[in-house]
From TrEMBL, chain A:
<dbReference type="InterPro" id="IPR017453">
    <property type="entry name" value="GCV_H_sub"/>
</dbReference>
<dbReference type="GO" id="GO:0005960">
    <property type="term" value="C:glycine cleavage complex"/>
</dbReference>
<dbReference type="GO" id="GO:0009249">
    <property type="term" value="P:protein lipoylation"/>
</dbReference>
<dbReference type="InterPro" id="IPR003016">
    <property type="entry name" value="2-oxoA_DH_lipoyl-BS"/>
</dbReference>
<dbReference type="Pfam" id="PF01597">
    <property type="entry name" value="GCV_H"/>
</dbReference>
<dbReference type="InterPro" id="IPR002930">
    <property type="entry name" value="GCV_H"/>
</dbReference>
<protein>
    <recommendedName>
        <fullName>Glycine cleavage system H protein</fullName>
    </recommendedName>
</protein>
<dbReference type="GO" id="GO:0005737">
    <property type="term" value="C:cytoplasm"/>
</dbReference>
<comment type="subunit">
    <text>The glycine cleavage system is composed of four proteins: P, T, L and H.</text>
</comment>
UniProtKB/TrEMBL annotation, chain B:
<keyword id="KW-0808">Transferase</keyword>
<feature type="domain" description="GCVT N-terminal">
    <location>
        <begin position="13"/>
        <end position="259"/>
    </location>
</feature>
<dbReference type="GO" id="GO:0004047">
    <property type="term" value="F:aminomethyltransferase activity"/>
</dbReference>
<dbReference type="InterPro" id="IPR029043">
    <property type="entry name" value="GcvT/YgfZ_C"/>
</dbReference>
<dbReference type="GO" id="GO:0006546">
    <property type="term" value="P:glycine catabolic process"/>
</dbReference>
<dbReference type="GO" id="GO:0005960">
    <property type="term" value="C:glycine cleavage complex"/>
</dbReference>
<feature type="binding site">
    <location>
        <position position="197"/>
    </location>
    <ligand>
        <name>substrate</name>
    </ligand>
</feature>
<dbReference type="GO" id="GO:0008168">
    <property type="term" value="F:methyltransferase activity"/>
</dbReference>
<comment type="similarity">
    <text>Belongs to the GcvT family.</text>
</comment>
């Protein structure tokens, strides 16, 4: 699993990347009340805002950690946004992307680097 | 944003000890949540929530001319207000814009006791200081903290400490000894629930806060839930839903305009209020239910069914009680009737909305029976 400084995670399986927000991000947001995930077929570039997550207080953008084409958004989050709090790095995934350049993952942090990054916040 | 360090209330250490997440609000370092906004919101609706609102401004206006002078800047009839009662009002500028909304009451026989918003208090007090004349003195009570206890069990919690408090009705106020110290107390709040606001000496605030939290019916509630609770109650937040450009008529706060004062027309903005009352205001604050999609938040456009933008959302979000997205905002009176179908524009996408009555969630004040 790889991580961004904006607190997204990405897990690569073949050329399919599953993307979500980290437990730290979910905890910071508090109760998630609304999630907007991208539709299949949409092309996104790394660092593009491609989803929205909303707590009671505010809406936050979610950025694509890597470039690619959306295969699937997690439509279950539309009716169960609280899954993002309950299992942010599992069932609370946001989207699956067909990655166009797997080498982009090399620019992201691994778990140890992300934990070290969190310790600086 | 400025680099001015945040001020703290006397309960800052208590919030941190409770594990609160702290944010800057109104120039103060304040708790936004403890266990979570939704849980705190629901606890307040079902039990009793305790809020630190010490960031708000407290003052006395004293002197023989206190009421007459105060009434130059507010549209409420404070001369007729009985001792032991308080009244919601609006501090108006010369153009009739709302500089702040406030509570002012007569807890004793020493003029008015006033509570104003944190972010406006310096400006409010400077304005009053500069403009009060004759025998009227503003005395800022910076030596006092302010607690609010709100919810259906708040009255029982407080009665356990002082039985006489059960006899107070909504908007009653008093000055009395509570927890062994000199307090101002009113039966009021900002959640739509029954409850009290209690002004206590700074030095006693943490002791009283902790004493109230010892009751299992009471939990600490942060500003996050305070905002979602007041939104459900249809109560405007100054600086968002009303501001110095908004008149009381536009703000749908005409209940705060006393009939006698409107007839006398002897206060800031009386001419504008008379004109807007007769001819209708250019815009008016309404409640909206958002029927689909994401919450519509401050800044979202409000459009008619043709897609023409006719107004703006001033606050909005999910209603934990209703399980629906609610908002308030401004539209022309032509589109303000209850039941009017409109759209809100969230991130460029229109979503169906409807004008509905406020409060969104019924208020449960402990009103005095009509005599």
């Amino acid at each position: 699993m790889h991580f961004t400084k904006d607190h997204e995670w990405v897990r690569l399986d073949g050329d399919v990347a599953t993307v979500g927000i980290t437990k730290h991000a979910a905890d910071q947001l508090g109760d998630v009340v609304f999630v907007e995930t991208p539709e299949a077929g949409k092309t996104v570039a790394a660092k593009d805002s491609f989803a929205v997550v909303e707590s009671v207080k505010a809406a936050s953008d979610v950025y694509a950690p890597v470039s690619g084409e959306v295969i699937e958004g997690n439509v279950a989050l539309a009716t169960s946004p609280e899954t993002v709090n309950a299992d942010p790095e599992g069932e609370g995934w946001f989207a699956k992307l067909k990655v166009s350049d797997a080498s982009q993952l090399d620019t992201l942090m691994d778990r140890a680097a992300y934990d070290a990054f969190l310790a600086t916040l | 944003m400025t680099d001015t360090p945040l001020k703290t209330t006397p309960l800052n250490a208590a919030h941190r000890a409770l594990g609160a997440r702290m944010v800057g609000f109104g120039g103060y370092d304040m708790p936004v949540q403890y266990e979570g906004v939704l849980a705190e919101h629901r606890w307040t609706r079902e039990h009793a929530g305790l809020f630190d609102v010490s960031h708000m401004g407290q003052a006395r206006i004293a002197g023989a001319d206190a009421i007459a002078q105060f009434e130059r800047f507010v549209p409420g009839d404070y001369a007729a207000l009985k001792a032991g009662r308080q009244k919601y009002s609006l501090l108006l500028n010369a153009e009739g814009g709302i500089m702040d909304d406030l509570m002012a009451g007569k807890p004793d026989h020493d003029g008015l006791y006033v509570v104003v918003n944190a972010g406006n208090k310096d400006a409010d007090f400077a304005y009053l200081e500069a403009n009060l004349s004759g025998d009227a003195q503003l005395v800022v009570l910076s030596d006092r903290a302010l607690l609010a206890i709100q919810g259906p069990e708040a009255a029982e919690v407080m009665a356990a400490h002082e039985p006489v408090l059960a006899e107070m009705a909504f908007m009653d106020c008093a000055r009395l000894m509570l927890f062994g110290v000199d307090c101002f107390i009113s039966r009021s709040g900002y959640t739509g629930e029954d409850g009290y606001e209690i002004s206590v000496p700074n030095a006693d605030a943490e002791r009283i806060w902790n004493t109230l939290l010892e009751d299992a019916r009471v939990k600490p509630i942060g500003l996050g839930a305070r905002d979602s609770l007041r939104l459900e109650a249809g109560l405007p937040l100054h600086g968002h839903d009303i501001d110095a450009t908004t008149s009381p008529v536009e703000g749908a706060l005409t209940f705060a305009l006393s009939k006698s004062r409107k007839e006398a027309g002897d206060f800031n903005g009386a001419a504008r209020i008379a004109t807007e009352t007769a001819d209708g205001p250019p815009r008016v604050r309404v409640g909206l239910i958002v029927k689909e999609g994401a919450p519509a938040r401050e800044g979202a456009g409000i459009a008619d069914l043709e897609g023409t933008v006719i107004g703006t959302v001033t606050s909005g979000g999910p209603s934990p009680t209703l399980g629906r997205n609610i908002a308030m905002g401004y539209v022309p009176p032509s589109h303000a009737a209850l039941g009017t179908d409109l759209q809100v524009i969230v991130r460029g996408k229109p979503a169906a909305a409807e004008v509905v009555a406020m409060p969104f969630v019924a208020q449960r004040y402990h009103r005095k029976p009509k005599s």
